[in-house]
Amino acid sequence: MQLRLLLCLVLFSPQGSSLHHQHSWRTKKRVRELPPTATATATATATAAPATAAPAHRNFTFDLFRALVAANPNQNIIFSPLSISMPLAMISLGARASTKEQILEGLGLSAQGGPEEDELHHGFHRLLQEQRRPREDLQLSLGNVLFIRPAVPVRDAFLSAMRTLYLADAVPTNFKDPEAAQKQINDYVAKETKGKIVDLVKDLDSSEVMVMVSYIFFKAKWETRFDPQSTLKQDFHVTPETVVQVPMMKREDEYDYLLDRRLSCRVVGLPYQGNATALFILPSEGRMHKAEAGLDQETLTKWFKKFTKRKLQLYLPKFSIEGSYQLEKILPKLGIRDLFTSHADLGGLTNHSNIQVSEMVHKAVVEVDESGTQAAAATGMVLGFRSARMGAQVVVFNRPFLMAIVNPEGVLFLGKVARP
């Protein structure tokens, strides 16, 4: 039998939303708080790493980012670390031996698990419960579901952990009818992602025994909107030789800003209504690789501590980018290897000895406009039998740049805009 992980992420902007200029004390305090990575948030260990922690260089969010960049050179990148780390944490509860150790180490934890592993799962539990509370200023919802073949016995302990820790429903699914199963799963995902993910699962076959789906939906408005009348077509330099025309938004205001001389980049923070911020990172010409290589949790920590309010004439393109990644080809570079091979040990999930993860897919699209940003993500695992003005500095994002959406839950989305 095979376990297929299918991840999907969609970010998009609502059109014509009304936004207000409000720089509250909460916002000023927020942008100076450290936003931990998705895994660090779940483990609640952002302030001090335990003595048993994995080596500091094993930072899942940014290691994965660099692996995706290396596998997709000069292309747009967008993904949700949270939407990927959560199902990996879930499947680790059914993994044993080196399979489990590799997953934990890949997530930046000790291979031995223990209290650190317990805090990982309980941290995700707290996060899921928190997101069930209604919010007026932004929408951030997370959820998980297991589509299970009734004839395959899944261990009660695993199902109990899925229900109690990850609030995951178990839905009986007839994989003997692959088309019906595929429609059932895709309809569910489309509903939970507000219709933005419509074809998460493809090419199911009758040997599948489980599809594990984890989704995230994010929608927020800028604290201060861009005036659509100020948006004009301008050049975007994809490479020194390639120039494309893009709709360039413009707004002069005070922004959180810093110049990182070590990484040769400028960083601008745009707050959303609610407790989230978008970071736009503009490397100096020819220094993109330096910025990519130096991006890590310590760097984000320094940025949020050193941000200062600066009057800027900001030019930022409206853009739409998307990506699709076969993570079973990427995660082995982070040490998570056995899970996708015949060596997988998922004995904590079922007593069947021949189950492995056959596929782990992450799909994403992001749209940013004058109003704000909306985002959704879903992760799935399938198991089956083997077979400027004076006084205002001008900052123009007219060449490839990096972006991140962060809040106290961590890095929700991370990407690279190579060609809007």
UniProtKB/TrEMBL annotation:
Keywords (A to Z) from UniProt: Signal
Domain spans labelled Serpin: 62-420
Pfam families: Serpin
InterPro entries: Serpin_CS, Serpin_dom, Serpin_fam, Serpin_sf, Serpin_sf_1, Serpin_sf_2
GO terms assigned for molecular function: serine-type endopeptidase inhibitor activity
Leader peptide range in chain numbering: 1-18
Presence of the UniProt keyword NAD in the record: no
GO cellular component: extracellular space
PANTHER family in alphabetical order: PLASMA SERINE PROTEASE INHIBITOR, SERINE PROTEASE INHIBITOR, SERPIN
Family: Belongs to the serpin family.
Protein name: Serpin domain-containing protein
Organism: Myotis lucifugus (Little brown bat)
